[in-house]
Amino acid sequence: METSIQQLQQEIDGYEIRNPKELEAFKLEFTVRKGKIAGLFSQLKTVDPADRPRMGQLLNSLKLSAEARVADAEARFAEDTAGAAPALDLSLPGRRSFLGSEHPVQKVLGDMKRIFTAMGFGIATGPELELDEYNFDRLNFPPNHPARDMQDTFFITRGQPEGDVLLRTHTSPVQVRVMLDQKPPIRVICPGKVYRNEAISARSYCVFHQLEGLYIDKNVSFADLKATIYSFARQMFGSDVKLRFRPSFFPFTEPSAEVDVTCYLCGGKGCRVCKKSGWLEIMGCGMVHPNVMKHCGIDPEEWTGYAFGMGVDRTALLRYKIDDIRLFFENDVRMLSQFMA
């Protein structure tokens, strides 16, 4: 192995880096994760244990030598670039001013806020970095619930005395904080970013926007919840939109339902986007679970309430007939310029 290290050192020393293109080629050959130096490091486990310390020192020296050549070349090219005068063609016409545009997700979120505030809902916000207590415990998630698993949640620290710290997976912790700080009646919406450790695809992303609603008062029923959602959907998607409620399960509501609207592409006939069903899911909802109220100091015998939650990004997909959620996070001016006011 020592011979291989010496040969690679000679290659690094003799490699000519005369321009940025050759610098990039040098990095790809020697310093990247799958480069030649990394290949030698992977062979270290096959070396006799008695020789490993010395081989490790030689490999580290080799790595530092390659990194020094990269740093030297980058500094040299930076000086050359700084000293060169920018090309300027004074005969070109002046550049006209361009109007900015509101991001489609923010446009949809703004419309949602206007609809719900007109119904009497206030707006509440909370931290994106949350404690396990607010994100799970007070929302009636059992200790072994799958949503607590690392594949769904971005944990920052675990096993601390104050509890696990994580990036919130929904805006429901804001509802918890409102219930702890205010006495009923309560009527709020909770918009904001949420984070989930999910595979990125055309229909899902690891960070997205959510808007949840909470209404607690005396004699609140599921009929009140349906009336609110029907009113929202007609204002958001048009008066001819059709809805359906499907029984579902959420730890923090009982009974629970998922709400679908007719597919925006096929009009309910069935297509690839709606998986031939004619329906697209827009939100989950239900009556606030008595355990959640107890955890937040509210008597479920005296008060009842409903809650709902929806993805703002997916609603924007529906409204603007966009088939890939990733477009919202790429900041492509060609796409964003289509939403100018």
**Low-confidence parts:** none
- Order of strands side by side in the largest beta sheet? 1-5-6-10-9-8-7
Cα separation of the termini: 65 Å
Identify the CATH architecture of the largest domain. Answer: 2-Layer Sandwich
- Strand percent estimate: 15-25%
Report the strand count.
10
Helix/strand-derived category reads alpha+beta
Q: Given the C-alpha coordinates, what overall shape results? A: extended
Number of spatially distinct domains: 2
The CATH topology of the largest domain turns out to be BirA Bifunctional Protein, domain 2
**Mean pLDDT value:** 88
Largest sheet: 7 strands, mixed
Question: What oligomeric state best describes the polypeptide chains here?
Answer: single chain
Percent of residues in helical segments? 25-40%
Assigned CATH class of the largest domain: Alpha Beta
What is the H/E string?
HHHHHEEHEEHEEHEEEHEHH
Provide the gyration radius in Å.
Answer: 28 Å
Fourth-tier CATH superfamily name of the largest domain: Bira Bifunctional Protein, Domain 2
Treating each run of at least 4 consecutive H or I residues as one helix, how many helices?
Answer: 11
